[in-house]
Structures are given as structure tokens and as C-alpha cells.
Specification:
Helix content: 25-40%
Shape: globular
Number of strands: 16
Structural class: alpha/beta
Distance between the termini: 74 Å
Radius of gyration: 24 Å
Length: 568
């Protein structure tokens, strides 16, 4: 009797499993078959979700520090309902998070070809590159719940290697550098080969990103490895000219990292062999030795010019590379520098340290430590900056606004505006620009504030993203006034993705950035009352001031002379 009951139970479970498999969406890609799931957008629209899809082999063991390798086909059906691990990185609390086996992507689509739903043909594709200072973050943290709520598109997000795993370099053919950006190229090539199976048009791919994701978008626009992989570009609060977007002295940093972990540094081959034997967590946690003050500079290992290698992502400095002539949409927020300023302006101890140790801290906070043209003028430069932004005032809670403006100008506004004007002068395709000046209930700066709130500090880095892409740090759909802005911002993206020209609300005319770099920056300002106001900025981010300082970003592509520990 027990055997009959057991056989009945087994039969039922087998039947139920088969029924369940039959009901889930399936897609076949080049490596095998995927079984996905269904997901609901913010207003209950059902979409298809395929997550945790490998786009390259795990970069572990002998493949650590190597360029991405092809993924091997699998037998059977891949369970595409579980996200792949985040890439191993360092959080602001100086803890390691994620795994090295992390090269996975996620695809969300409103229609599938096998369902006979593509009456209008293949759909536009949005590939979103996550931010996180090239040190933390993951593709799964940015979802499609807003964007696909009303739009028929295919949305892709993915991971890429971070920190030393993605950006260490020995300056030769052993580890040329930029593996994290080469991971992104591998993901975009995967999209080209496979996205039609999800209803996406490989000839209509918009790459997009915020912060380090925006910097990545910008680099793809000039990299020979990315040619032909996209037709539109959206860069929010980041560009190739941001001081943190290009990592100086990467070869020396890699040697110093090896030294910290007890590895030889004379021969590159021996250095990397030894580093491959060290625990990944130990490598990540060693990064705190490169941050003299709090989490600054926040990008230790990042993009750099490659001096060797068969295929180079960045073979020269940006100004020497041709730009892909595609429509681009750039933006910054009103108070972009609240990352990282929110962390320091909400701590009295940090403010006192910044005031009393200004000359020592400023080069790290403002990321110019490696680019002082004349070392004898280091203190003079620091004092010039302090006088410009604070006058004769001491740094304190009374000067919070000045701190935020200074960090905003230096790390985001000035370089992003400069890049947009540079691209507009080079391309025939239009470059459009907006400033996001709407402060909702939620803000990315809440996450970094020492008090848990950033009310009254301003419109932070990433605050516009949360109205288009579902983020972990904001839920604007929970607030009636904020909710009204979601379809407006989604339409800015959707119109740009479809036509290359973004639409402003209420038919406001949105002029592109002038092709004459001497002209003021033309943009749309999205205000606190949710209006779109045409604006001109003649000196965005105090460009004239920062240009006057003797700093040498992108000055050379040659390996730098080894520096002392205080330079790291």
C-alpha cells in the first residue's frame, strides 16, 4: 500500500513539474535553451524575464585577470529564473561583496517571437550599464518595472568585473588592462548575436548608464572594440572627462597591491601568478590602503590606456580616438556631488578633518592627486580651490552648500558638460542634454548620509535614474507627486531611443548642444514643479576656474614613475 502511495506521489510530482516547465517562457540562444519566468511591471503589466544568463565563462582561477572567455554550451535547459552573483567588489563600509563567477546578464521583454506577438517587427533594445565607481554594484539592481510598464522594448542589464579584477594592469601583454570594459563588450556582442530571440532588434540598441555606467557608455563611443554594437547612447552623470573616469598609475597600483599581498613585483608573470593564488576577498579588502580619507578617491582601479595587447579597448587617450557618430543624451543632476558629499557633510568629525587637513585631503576628495603638474604647487592649488568656494569661511555645517557645489562641479558637472560639448563639435548626430533639479521623497544621498536622511541637501547623483529604471534606493511610485514624473521621464528615454531626439513635456522645444564649443551649454532643466525649461549655461560647473588650474588629466599614455606610498 505504501509503495502505491509513493508511486502516486512521484507520478504527481513529475506531472506537476512537467506542467510547470511547459508553462514557463522558453528561449533558445547560441549556448542552449533558457527557461525564464514572468514578472510584473509597476502597474501590473506582465513581461517575460530571463535572468542569470552567462555571457562569458567564469573569470576564475587561471582566468582571473584575463580578458573574457567564450561561454561553453550547456546540456539541457538553463534555469534563467535566478540572478547570477554580483561581481566581487568593495562597499562604502569597506566590506567585500559578491563573487568572482559573475559574468551574467538579464533580459526582460514585453513580447517573444514564438508567441506571434511581433506584428510591428523586432523591438528597440536598451542595454543598461550599472554604476558604482567601477568598484561595486550589479546589473540586477536596476530593473525594468518602470521602463517596460508602457513601452514595448527589450531591456538588458549585466555585470562586469570591478576593482582590480576588472581594471588591474601590468602595462604589458600579461594584463594589458580594462578587462571590466572588455566584459561589457562581450555582453554587447552577446546582445548582437542573441537578442532577436527575445524580440529585440540588434540594429537598434541603445547603451545607457549612470555614473560609472555613463563613463562606460562614453568609452564605448570611442573604443574600436565597440564599433557597431549600438546606435544610441545615454550617459547620466558621468563622462570620460570626469577625473575619476581615468585611473592614473594603474601599473604602480597593481604592483603595490601585489606587494601588500606578499607577491613579487619585478616580473609581471610572477606578479599575476601569485595574485591568482590569493583569496579574492583579500584582494578587495586591500583597496582600503589606497583610500587615505574615508572612501576617497572612490575609484582606485579604473579605465586606463592599454600599452600592449592584441585587441585594446582604449589604445590611446580619448582626444586621439575617433568618436562613433550616434545620437547621444547627456545629463547631470543639480547637486550631483552629493555622491560622495552626503557622507561627509552629515558627519561633524569629517567636516572638522576636512577643514583642518584641507591641503592633505582635497587632492583625494577632488581626485587630482596624480595630476598636479608641478608638485611644488600642491598646497597652492588646494588653497586656490578653498578660497574660490569658501572665501575666508571655515568648512563646517554652515558651508554644506559650498561643499556640495565644489564636489558637484569638479567630479560631475564641469567634465560632463565639457564632454557633451566636445562630442557635439565632433559629430553630425545631435547631442541633447538635461539637468535634473527635482527632489522627490527618496534620494540616493539617503543611502550615504550618516544620519539616514538627506532632506534639504539637494538633488543627488542618480536621483533622475530612479524615475526611469527601478532602483534599490528609490520608490517614487509610492508618492503621488513623484509618481507623476515617472511617465514623463520614461517618455524622455523612449522618444530618444526611438528617434534619437528626446521629447520634453508639454511640447517644449529641446535644442541640441551647439556644435560650436565656444557657445553656452544648451539644455533642458527639469524643475521642482516638473516643468521643462530651456536653459543656457555659459560656464557649466565653473569650467573656467577648473581649466585655470595646473592639472594634467590625460597628459600622457606612458607608464608613470613609481610613486611613494603617500601617492597611493
Amino acid at each position: 500500500m505504501k509503495e502505491i502511495v509513493w508511486l502516486t506521489v512521484c507520478f504527481f510530482l513529475t506531472w506537476a513539474h512537467a506542467q510547470n516547465l511547459a508553462s514557463v517562457p522558453r528561449v533558445r540562444v547560441e549556448s542552449g535553451e533558457l527557461a525564464g519566468s514572468f514578472k510584473q511591471t509597476i502597474n501590473g503589466r506582465q513581461i517575460y524575464a530571463f535572468v542569470g544568463i552567462p555571457y562569458a565563462s567564469p573569470p576564475v582561477h587561471k582566468h582571473r585577470f584575463k580578458e573574457p572567455q567564450p561561454v561553453k554550451p550547456w546540456i539541457g535547459v538553463w534555469n534563467a529564473t535566478i540572478h547570477g552573483s554580483d561581481c566581487l567588489g568593495l562597499t562604502h563600509k569597506f566590506t567585500a561583496t559578491g563573487q568572482e563567477d559573475c559574468l551574467y546578464l538579464n533580459v526582460y521583454t514585453t513580447k517573444l517571437p514564438q508567441d506571434g506577438l511581433l506584428n510591428g517587427g523586432l523591438m528597440n533594445v536598451v542595454a543598461y550599464i550599472h554604476g558604482g565607481a567601477f568598484q561595486f554594484g550589479a546589473g540586477k539592481d536596476y530593473g525594468p518595472e518602470y521602463l517596460l510598464d508602457t513601452q514595448d522594448m527589450v531591456y538588458v542589464s549585466f555585470n562586469y568585473r570591478l576593482g582590480p579584477f576588472g581594471f588591474a594592469s601590468t602595462g604589458d601583454e600579461i594584463v594589458p588592462g580594462n578587462n571590466g570594459l572588455k566584459d561589457q563588450v562581450a555582453a554587447l556582442k552577446w546582445v548582437q548575436r542573441n537578442i532577436a530571440a527575445f524580440g529585440g532588434n540588434p540594429g537598434a540598441v541603445t547603451i545607457s548608464g549612470m555614473s560609472a555606467g555613463a563613463v562606460s557608455v562614453n568609452y564605448h563611443m570611442i573604443s574600436p572594440m565597440s564599433l557597431g554594437l549600438f546606435s544610441r547612447a545615454v550617459a547620466m552623470s558621468g563622462s570620460i572627462h570626469c577625473p575619476w573616469a581615468y585611473a592614473e598609475n594603474v601599473v604602480q597600483k597593481t604592483k603595490h597591491l601585489a606587494d601588500l599581498l606578499g607577491c613579487p613585483t619585478y616580473y609581471s608573470k610572477d606578479t599575476i601568478k601569485c595574485l591568482r593564488s590569493r583569496p579574492g576577498v583579500a584582494i578587495v579588502q586591500s583597496l582600503k590602503n589606497f583610500m587615505p580619507w574615508m572612501f576617497n578617491p572612490f575609484t582606485v582601479f579604473g579605465p586606463t590606456v592599454e600599452l600592449a595587447g592584441v585587441e585594446r579597448f582604449l589604445p590611446d587617450v580619448p582626444e586621439n580616438l575617433p568618436v562613433q557618430d550616434v545620437p547621444a543624451l547627456f545629463s547631470f543632476t543639480q547637486d550631483d556631488g552629493l555622491y560622495p558629499a552626503a557622507e561627509l557633510v552629515t558627519q561633524d568629525k569629517a567636516l572638522v578633518e576636512l577643514d583642518t587637513k584641507w591641503s592633505e585631503i582635497a587632492p583625494f576628495l577632488l581626485d587630482y592627486n596624480y595630476t598636479v603638474a608641478d608638485e611644488t604647487r600642491r598646497s597652492e592649488i588646494a588653497q586656490t580651490i578653498k578660497t574660490f568656494y569658501f572665501g575666508n569661511s571655515s568648512i563646517s555645517t554652515a558651508t554644506t552648500a559650498q561643499i556640495v557645489q565644489m564636489v558637484t562641479d569638479r567630479l560631475f558637472k564641469e567634465p560632463v558638460a565639457r564632454t557633451a560639448k566636445y562630442l557635439a563639435s565632433k559629430n553630425t548626430s545631435p547631442v541633447h542634454f538635461y539637468e535634473f533639479a527635482y527632489r522627490g521623497r527618496d534620494s540616493l544621498s539617503d543611502k550615504y548620509s550618516a544620519t539616514g536622511t538627506s532632506e534639504g541637501l539637494g538633488v543627488a547623483h542618480g536621483d533622475d535614474t530612479m524615475y526611469i529604471i527601478k532602483t534599490l534606493y528609490g520608490n517614487p511610485h509610492e508618492v503621488a507627486e513623484d509618481t507623476k514624473l515617472i511617465p514623463v521621464m520614461v517618455n524622455v528615454w523612449a522618444s530618444f531611443i526611438k528617434t534619437g531626439i528626446p521629447e520634453a513635456s508639454n511640447g517644449t522645444s529641446w535644442s541640441p548642444v551647439s556644435q560650436n564649443p565656444a557657445d553656452p551649454l544648451q539644455l533642458i532643466k527639469i524643475t521642482q514643479t516638473q516643468t521643462f525649461e530651456p536653459t543656457e549655461l555659459p560656464d557649466a560647473g565653473n569650467n573656467a576656474f577648473w581649466k585655470s588650474l595646473p592639472l594634467t588629466e590625460f597628459a600622457t599614455v606612458l607608464p608613470a614613475v613609481a610613486t611613494g606610498h603617500n601617492e597611493l
